[in-house]
């Protein structure tokens, strides 16, 4: 499978469309009726993904540590999605990261166009995922960059304005990677594996970390489109910093879409496809999508914490038994990602298609 070097059609910035003030969105963004969001909810207002206080992990008290790990275990098995508070990332850094990126998107279009991206690596300023000609598009723009491995990190590909953006992204990235390592250890212990098992399976210190900042402009017809179509994240796990002013993320639970109500300064964690494979589906990546809003833009930072791109990812031997045979065949994350990038968001069809026929 090869990625074409350019997009199949000229790129239109959703932000520019939004700024025209037109009351109707172009057909390209109109989803078929069964895929449209329903706004007659009210029924979903009570459920929220679990909120977990991580300060217990560092408390030094084994009982509290165990209770915190247990909460994480339940959240991983039952939801695959949770919010963490007291995660150790300074609140001013959390707010600073989001608001710096908001400033980036509010700059004149010419400045952003300098970073226009291509499907080969997706790095830079983009307005679509997937390269299928004629595809129905999502109502969002984004900026994508690499932090790890360090040979992929290139500050020149990160915005130079606002001037402090690169420093903020550096600091925020370090903190996310620290948090990622903590959670891999907790997951390993919770699964009865050696505590460094998942970290090693991810490639030791050579993990991947990349950031997609999503910008969802105001949308005059939010009931006809989506900010981001249903998908599961392809990597290991994702740390999402949501917009605290406006909700939009929905998680599929059973047959329902649950709207996540972000807690202030919390970071949303979700299991992604590679952890589903490594745990032989004891933890599952969960489908999610984003709805848009007629009066408010939304900015979110999705930090993807991924295995090293060329290590084989396969179910942990300890989790494969005669009653629970291996569900997936080994595949590197590189191979998997290429497969995703050509198609764009497709629910959970990709990880499901990995299922072995054995
Ligand atoms: C993503 C994602 C959710 C959001 O970028 O993969 O799911 O709330 N984002 O922006
Ligand atoms: Ni996602």
UniProtKB/TrEMBL annotation:
It comes from the Eukaryota. This is Uncharacterized protein.
